[in-house]
Amino acid sequence: MVKYSLKRLVYMIPVTIAVVFIVYLIMYLTPGDPVALMLGAEATPELIQETREALGITKPFLTQFTNYVVNLFQGDFGVSWYTGREVAERLFASIPYTLILTFSGMFVALICSIPMGVMAAVKQNTPVDYIVSVLAICGVSAPSFWVGIMLILLLAVEFQLLPSAGIDGWTSYIMPTLTMGFNMLASVTRTQRSSMLEVLRADYIRTAKAKGVSNFNATYKHALRNAIIPAITVAGINFGTLMAGSVAIETVFAIPGVGRLMIDSIKLHDTPTVVGCMVFVALMVSIINLVVDLLYAFIDPRIKAQYIREGGSK
Prior knowledge:
The chain is mostly helical. The protein folds into 2 domains: 11-72, no CATH class; 88-267, MetI-like (MetI-like fold), CATH 1.10.3720. The model has no long low-confidence stretch (mean pLDDT 84). It is built from 13 helices and no strands.
C-alpha cells in the first residue's frame, strides 16, 4: 500500500505540470494588458514597457512557462503582478477558509446522504423513499449560488438568525456549508439508494436472512459495507465540484477564500496568482482521490489486494 501511495503521489507531478501549462496558456492568450490595468490610465508608454520587462511578460510563452515551473518546484509561486506580494503569502492566507468550507460541506453531505440513501432503499416505494427522492432531485437541479441567495434571504434577511456575508465567528460558516453540501448530498443520496437496492437483492443477503440473520444486521453489517463504495466514489468525484463551486459560494457570501482570490486575480489578469490557485486546487483534488482509493482498500479487502499487486509488493 505504501508503494502504491508513493506511485500515485509521483503521478501528481505531471498532472500539476499539465494544469500549469493549460492555465498559463489561457492567461497568456487572454486579451488585455495586466500592466496597463495595474498602472492605470495615466501611466506613460515608457513606464508600461519598463514594467512589462521587469515582470518578464515580454519573454516568449515557453520561456515564461519553463521559468515558472522551475520556480514552482523550488517552492516559489512567484509574485503577484498587481499587489507585488508573494503569491504563496496570499494563497496561504486564503486556504484555511476554503478548506474549512469544503470539508465542512463534504462532512454535512456525507453524514446526511448515506443514512438517507439507506432509508430510501430499505423503505422503497414508501413516503420516506418519495421524500428523499424529491430532495435529491431538488439538490441536483438547484444551482449552488441560487441556494446561497435563498438562504441569505430566509435566514439572514427575513429571520436575522445568521450573518449574511463575511467571516465573523463559526456561525458565518453555517449557510455556506449548507449551500455547498446540498448539491453533493443529493448526488450521493441517489447513488447510495441505487447501490443499496442492488445489494439488498443479492443472493448472499437472502441467504443470510434465511440463516436467521436479522434484517438490521443484514442491512447495516453486510449490505452497507458493499453498497457504500459507489457513494464514496461519487463523494470523491464531487470534491472537485465542491472546490469549483467554492468560487461562486465564496463570492455570494464574501468569504476571502481561494475561489474569491482566483476570481479577483482573473479580473486583474494576475497570472501568477491565478496559476497558484489552480495548482492548489489540482493538488487537493489529486490528494482526495488518493484518499478515496485508500478508503476502498479499507472497506473491501479484494481492492486492497489489487492495490498491493499494483504497488509491486508480494
